Hints:
The chain is built from four helices and eight strands; from the N terminus they run ββαββαβαβαββ. The chain is of the alpha/beta class.
Amino acid sequence: MTVRLKPGDALLIVDVQNDFLPGGALAVPHGDQVIAPLNDYIHRFRAAGLPIFASRDWHPPNHCSFKAQGGPWPPHCIQDSEGARFAPTLELPENAYIVSKATRAEEEAYSAFQGTELAPQLRDMGIRRLFIGGLATDYCVKHTVLDALNEGFTVYLLTDAIRAVDLQPGDGERAIDEMLAAGALPLTLSDLEMPQSP
Length: 198
Ligand code: VGL
Ligand code: ZN
């Protein structure tokens, strides 16, 4: 399958933050392997003049998802901490749109759409198709993709630019199955073609 980029397309990079990389507070196994392919996507979208969005997990220190508050996770992606910064080797452009989520202590939000203005912002910009990759396949990527489909966007899942936490073996594969069953379309870099020149 080949897909040609066109106006109305946007790249959405989910949570490629230090705490989700090897050595981070909530390291996703091989999470760093999404960076090189995502940089390739970034370069394609920039060359095509298409917008790039990057979500970030952006928790207060007492967030409900942390073990001290009875949640499942160690503290991670605390607002303004080093661990919450985007991976330094991710080549996000100056004009990338940043979406901060799960910013309130009482509410977990795996999806970049939950509690944010992302959907209206995308609609205002005339975006119809989203190309989604990042971390982690079985949490924030999955929930973001499912919400994007529910919001009516066409979703391409960048299968060469996602990695899973895999708390239970197979979680990542099951998440991919669920996203595809819900209507996401799998895509890798080699499927992508640049816009037709006028
Ligand atoms: C995530 C677990 C906790 C994610 C965020 O970005 O997938 N996972 N918070
Ligand atoms: Zn989190």
